[in-house]
Amino acid sequence: MNPYDPFARYYDADFRDYHEDLPFLREMARRTGGPILELMCGTGRVLLPLAEEGYAITGVDSSPAMLAIARNAVAAAGLGDRVTLIEGDVRDVALSADRFALAVVAVNSFMHLEEVRDQLAALANVRRALTRRGLLILDLFNPDPLTIAREDNRLVLDREYVLDGARVQKFVAIDSDAAAQISRVTYLYDETDGDGRVTRRTMRFTMRWFYRYELEHLLARAGFALRSLYGSYDLETFDSGSPRMIAVAAPAR
To answer: Which class for 165: exposed (0-12), middle (13-18), buried (19 or more C-beta within 10 A)?
Structure first.
């Protein structure tokens, strides 16, 4: 079983109402046209709104359960003729060459690739799939040393919501290693049913963060040229206080 499958329902509930990046992505889609490729598409939070705008979009994810939720949402919206969903690993999934005008890896998803060899493999795969004038968007968080230093695996309540009639409490603990540039993340989901019984599910994963010039060199090694680096979805100039690090890159000529 894919390690993310048991948490697909929670992931969808956690992020389905996150819309901050959508105006930016819609504008980039307008500038480039389609078709669009979204890697690590999860349950379809990004690809559905873009398909609703009329774009043909292909979503790739390694989790069958995530894709099942996305597939149901696509069918419910009547967008099956615009959306293609592929189960696969972004490092080696088979993609049509020279097909996509825009490729997107949304909020922090690229950080799930911990090793440089895996990052380069994924980027090389995307580069082959992009047209000569295509663009790649990597949306990452800007690592703040002060925040990272305070991440000591302390458990905090992140959010509460109702899911399928049950009350869910989500707790988060993060332990970061500045030398290795990784954060070890633990999610605890406590689900209370109508009879008061509590089921706890624990999800652990590691995120690798990037610094500006490290990212630029990584892209160059994979055959990309960095076109723009933004610090927010409003296209503000990237600086040390920026909340995001959004790279827009193109295949190098």
So the answer is: exposed
| Structure confidence by residue, pLDDT tens digits, 162-200 | 999 999 999 999 999 999 999 999 999 999 998 889 999
Q: What is the pTM of this model?
A: 0.95
Which residue bears the tokens 């949402």? Answer: 73
Q: Quote the domain boundaries for residue 216.
A: 5-142+210-251
Please tell me the distance from the alpha carbon of residue 183 to that of residue 206, in angstroms, as a whole number.
Answer: 6
pLDDT in tens, 86-107: 999 999 999 998 999 999 999 9
Half-sphere exposure (Cβ direction) of 213: Cα atoms closer than 13 Å:
0
Q: What is the rounded distance in angstroms from the CA atom of residue 240 to the CA atom of residue 199?
A: 41
Contact indicator for 86, 60 with CB cutoff of 8 Å: yes
One-letter amino acid for residue 69 of the chain: I
Last residue within a domain, chosen from 190, 208, 226: 208
Cα dihedral 103/26/226/205 (nearest 10): -60
